[in-house]
TrEMBL record:
CDD domains: AdoMet_MTases (cd02440). InterPro entries: Erg6_SMT_methyltransf, Methyltransf_25, SAM-dependent_MTases_sf. Signal peptide: none annotated. It comes from Streptomyces pratensis (strain ATCC 33331 / IAF-45CD). GO terms for molecular function: methyltransferase activity. Keywords: Methyltransferase, Transferase. GO terms for biological process: methylation. Residues 169-263 form the Methyltransferase domain. This is Methyltransferase type 11.
Length: 371
């Protein structure tokens, strides 16, 4: 392995050796417009893209990317007694992998990744708070963008669920499929990925590339006319989609029909800290960005009442996600920076969240069991 780090053109250190069957690993940095850029080139076995003195390899779906991955690499090289150099200060930098994805690494034989030291994408890696989500490359997730960080929402929600290997889970409103990949990989579930707007063929391609095509089935389905047999699922989850169809009083009976006795239901949905009904109107800064859509962004207490009054389920948790508005803002800024035309499409949301500062905007995480 050969490693070299530079900051603003200053060489910090270099090491040459072998690492876990890799033919070579060459990071090198250059400065551009005041930023440090790291070029990372890896040849050899996919999924071995982490410099680890122990020689252990990480499978592609557990590839550490982003700030944590680079810091781990730097920390490992610095702390390894066999290294005859020290990249001082390297572990303190905020570096984020912005091109290589855990998914694309499955089929990659070689990869070249540009890493930016000062970027909004960096903020999408949070191993201390959300370790499972941090295993997935933000660039891959941003490429599947259909709303705020879906894996952050799902990982947080899953703390209130009892998800086990072998469960059959309906991922309702999966979009382009990131949450279905996560359910299959992280919890060993068999997943039916249902969405009305995304073609099954498009989602199936994502699942195949991610290596979960044998565990995730993509279907096109409308939430009020789901084509599944009664009591055919152990759990139903819906991430950032329920506000579009779940406010109807007829929705919950449609879902509980599909759950086995004791089956679980979990949603992560855009929310307000107070009901619009109580406020008297959608706050102007929210209305400018999303119009009347926010009328459907209910509080956790509203969801709890709407579900429990049916006596179909027992609500096991109903809460606002901690710092949800800030997480949403981080995601929107990353989309604006990373995606083509991202600034145009995401700036209104960035302005809305910045002005709101958590006063009204959040996400509701609600779970229940079928009676």
């Amino acid at each position: 392995m050969s490693c070299e780090f530079r900051w603003e053109g200053r060489r910090l250190g270099r090491r040459t050796g072998q690492h876990d069957g890799m033919a070579g690993l060459w990071p090198a940095a250059r400065s551009r417009r005041g930023r440090a850029h790291l070029t990372y080139v890896a040849h050899g076995r996919p999924g071995s893209h982490r410099a680890d003195p122990s020689g252990s390899a990480f499978p592609p779906h557990r590839l550490r990317t982003g700030a944590a991955g680079v810091r781990d690499a730097c920390d490992g090289l610095v702390s390894d007694p066999g290294n005859r150099w020290c990249a001082k200060g390297c572990s303190g930098w905020i570096l984020a992998v912005s091109a290589v994805s855990a998914v694309s690494a499955v089929s990659a034989v070689s990869a070249v990744t540009a890493v930016s030291a000062v970027t909004a994408v960096t903020d999408l890696v949070r191993p201390e708070r959300l370790p499972r989500s941090s295993r997935y490359d933000p660039a891959w997730l941003l490429g599947l963008d259909m709303g705020p960080h879906p894996l952050w929402l799902l990982e947080d929600l899953a703390q209130d669920l009892d998800l086990r290997p072998g469960m059959r889970i309906l991922d309702l409103g999966t979009g382009k499929g990131a949450t279905s990949v996560f359910l299959a990989r992280e919890y060993g579930a068999r997943v039916v990925a249902a969405d009305w707007w995304i073609a099954p063929e498009e989602a199936a391609a994502v699942f195949a590339e991610a290596g979960v095509g044998d565990r995730v089935e993509a279907v096109r389905a409308e939430a009020h006319a789901l084509p599944f047999e009664d009591e055919s699922f152990d759990a139903i989850v819906s991430i950032d989609a329920f506000e579009y169809f779940g406010t109807s009083d007829t929705c919950l009976p449609c879902l509980t029909r599909l759950l086995r006795p004791g089956g679980q239901l979990g949603i992560a949905t855009a929310a307000m800290t107070r009901e619009v009904r109580d406020l008297g109107a959608v706050p102007p800064h929210i209305r400018r960005a999303v119009g009347r859509e926010a009328i459907a962004w209910h509080t956790p207490d509203r969801w709890r009442f709407q579900w429990e009054v049916t006596e179909l389920v027992r609500v096991t948790s109903a809460r606002l996600q901690r710092d949800a508005w800030r997480d949403w803002l981080l995601w929107s800024r990353a989309c604006a920076e990373h995606l083509p035309d991202g600034r145009k499409s995401h700036q209104p949301v960035i302005d809305m969240l910045t002005e709101d500062g958590g006063a009204f905007l959040s996400f509701a995480l609600v779970t229940a069991r079928k009676n």
